[in-house]
Amino acid sequence: MACTCCDCQEPLEILDDVAIRIKQTDRLKASLDYLATAKGGWVKLYRCKECGQFWQSSTYETGVAHFYEVLYPVPPIDLQEWLEHPYLDAVQIAENRTKIMRVENELGPEIGPELCRIEDCHRLRVAHSVFCQQHHIENLQKIGALPQLPAINNDAGLSLNSQPLGCPVGVVVP
Predict the structure, then answer these.
(1) What is the CB-side half-sphere exposure of residue 4 using CA atoms within 13 A?
(2) Where are the domains of the chain?
(3) Per-residue pLDDT, 152
(4) Radius of gyration of the chain from Cα atoms?
(5) 91 burial type by CB count under 10 A (0-12 exposed, 13-18 middle, 19+ buried)
(6) Strand runs (DSSP E) across 64-122, as ranges?
(7) Model's pTM, two decimal places?
(8) Per residue in 124-143, is it b (16+ CB within 10 Å) or e — as a string?
(9) Residue 113 to residues 40, 103, 105, 109: CA-CA distances in angstroms?
(10) Which residue positions in the chain have pLDDT lower than 70?
(11) CA pair distance 60, 67, nearest whole angstrom
(12) What pLDDT shows up at residue 142?
């Protein structure tokens, strides 16, 4: 089977991207070798037979007991290290980002005329709040009403823009 890693280059930023990747997963999976399963069977690690790119999969639930496997590229890793500490779940991050975006859209524009009540913030408040959009979201996250997004860097886990090994330079894959 020919390598299809470069065909799946869109980052999993929001749930719309996850829906696209679900449609690509079977074709992509055909060119991968299964390596291991972690976290009680919910997370799997694969490697491309052709280019060597590592792929992690996690599941996305679209309804009651309706699960889809979703693949996303990850940096190379020692198998034992991955079994102990799999990469961050890109599907969960996309789901959380989508939830936050929906709340941002519902909050609407910063209309004021009052300023946000956070000291040294010079932005206007949103309707029905004493905070600007950013600080309203942060307060919802503090109380657990909205998820927080992880700080992502090359040392902490998943790189959302890792370069597949076999792709031409300039082609960026999540």
Answers:
(1) 15
(2) 5-88, 102-142
(3) 60
(4) 19
(5) buried
(6) 66-74, 110-115
(7) 0.79
(8) ebbeebebbbebbbeebbee
(9) 52, 21, 19, 12
(10) 1, 65, 152-174
(11) 5
(12) 95
- In the prediction, which pLDDT does 153 show? 52
The CA-atom distances, in angstroms, between 171 and each of 7, 8, 10, 161, 168 are: 10, 10, 10, 10, 6
- Give me 167's structure tokens: 């792709």
Determine contact, residues 117/125, Cβ cutoff 8 Å: yes
Among candidates 65, 126, 68, which has minimal Cα distance to 94? 68
Q: Pull the structure tokens for residue 9.
A: 């280059």
> Coil, helix or strand for 173?
coil
Q: Are 171 and 125 in contact (CB under 8 A)?
A: no
User: d(Cα 86, Cα 150) in Å, to the nearest integer?
Assistant: 15
- Reduced DSSP (H G I as helix, E B as strand, rest coil) percent helix, strand, coil of the chain, to 5: 30, 25, 45
DSSP 124: E
Residues in the chain: 174
